[in-house]
Design goal:
The protein is mainly β and 393 residues long. It is 10% helix and 46% strand. The chain is elongated and about 90 Å long.
Length: 393
């Protein structure tokens, strides 16, 4: 992408202009010419313009400028060269107080990602905050920098963001969505875009099949959305599954899913007005009776919405087996099953060679709530053992 040299019309408020400058080769006059053009056209210091600078050689390019232009350039990018280059590595976003909107902004949360391109070794100036750092062995560079720093008492200072890397590069296409989010979050941050209050979380749930059976897969189809007239930021949905359901899959149309035990988190970041997102959860019921799942939807500047999804599961409880170590050469087996039914715990010893094995009953029992437990010795000479619980009548 070339440098965009189009200037605003005379008299336009230059402090509200966002200029995006991309990679400039060392010694190229385009950078200084572009800065000079902004100064001449706007009739004001270039520091009054909101800027995002993008490119892997933003520090070394200053070497081709005069002393005054070099100081102006380094004052805008807020980077000081430390010498040398960093050839690829891992970019780790930080949670700097003034720049939390970059790694965790409205256009997507950003975690560590790899790049293959070469960047200047540079450090942020003292009046700026480091939002992301590139490391490759002993080499490092501050590649995402925001100005002013969180300690700057002047809240009216024009904001600036520098990305010391291209938006895309050879050999690292997977990082493009990440850097796109960084760019969008950076633009939002420098323009002080705030959260809009007209955000109304919406929710619809459909169950398939309508009458789930124990041991058979079922699907929870959740339709989440924003029914308001404004875009919502910080949009997060939390689904807490009932104890009698086992999660087997989770997917969404958009956003990032994280799972902790039986809790599913869907982080969307920014959700446009009147937008809907599908969240599909595959479960297997293991306990009959009524189950209640809780859904919590929240977004910045909006009142959270809580909904319960309750339905009845038919059938008989599916036996569950848990195994954990219990002392030297001993394991503890725990079974949850249907009260009054007869079961057998079976073991198969894996052979030292081959894949053939057979099951043998270790004990029979009638299940009495709340649980059944037994200990088993594990021979040190065994390659390994498998356990299962089976209903006998």
């Amino acid at each position: 992408m070339p440098w965009d040299s189009r200037m605003p019309t005379p008299g336009r408020e230059c402090s509200k202009i966002l200029n995006i400058g991309l990679e400039v080769s060392p010694g190229s006059p385009r950078k200084s010419e572009g800065l000079r053009a902004f100064q001449l056209h706007c009739g004001m210091p270039v520091i009054g313009i909101r800027l995002i600078f993008i490119g892997p050689r933003l520090s070394s390019t200053a070497a081709g400028l005069s002393a005054g232009s070099r100081a102006t350039w380094q004052g805008l990018v807020h980077l000081q060269p430390t010498g040398g280059l960093v050839s690829g590595g891992t970019v780790t976003p930080s949670n700097s107080p003034s720049g939390n909107l970059l790694p965790n902004g409205p256009y997507g949360s950003v975690g560590p990602f790899e790049i293959q391109t070469t960047a200047d070794q540079a450090t942020a100036t003292l009046n700026a905050d480091v939002l992301g750092r590139l490391t490759n062995g002993a080499d490092a560079a501050d590649v995402i920098v925001s100005f002013p720093s969180a300690n700057n008492p002047n809240q009216d200072q024009v904001r600036t963001v520098t990305l010391l890397m291209p938006l895309d590069g050879p050999g690292d296409p997977n990082s493009f969505p990440t850097r796109k989010s960084l760019l969008q979050n950076g633009i939002c941050w420098v323009l002080n875009c705030g959260a809009c209050p007209e955000v109304y979380p919406s929710f619809i749930c459909a169950l398939d099949p309508a009458q789930p059976q124990t041991g058979s897969p079922a699907t929870l189809n959740l339709t989440l959305g924003n029914g308001g007239e404004c875009d919502g930021v910080g949009y997060v949905t939390t689904v807490q599954l009932a104890d009698g359901l086992k999660l087997v899959s989770a997917k969404s149309d958009y956003g990032q899913i994280t799972i902790s035990n039986s809790t599913i988190f869907l982080s969307v970041g920014r959700i446009p007005a009147r937008q809907q997102i599908g969240l599909t959860l595959g479960v297997i019921p293991v306990v009959p009776g009524w189950v209640t799942n809780h859904v919590h939807i929240q977004a910045a500047s909006a009142t959270a919405r809580d909904e319960d999804v309750a339905f009845e599961v038919k059938g008989e409880r599916i036996p569950e087996l848990a195994i954990k170590a219990s002392g030297k050469d001993t394991v503890l087996l725990t079974v949850w099953a249907n009260p009054g039914s007869s079961y057998a715990v079976e073991r198969a010893i894996l052979p030292a060679q081959g894949t053939n094995f057979s099951w043998a009953v270790t004990t029979n029992f009638v299940f009495v709530p709340p649980l059944f437990q037994m200990q088993e010795l594990v021979s040190a000479t065994n390659r390994g053992s498998l356990y299962r619980v089976r209903k006998t009548q």
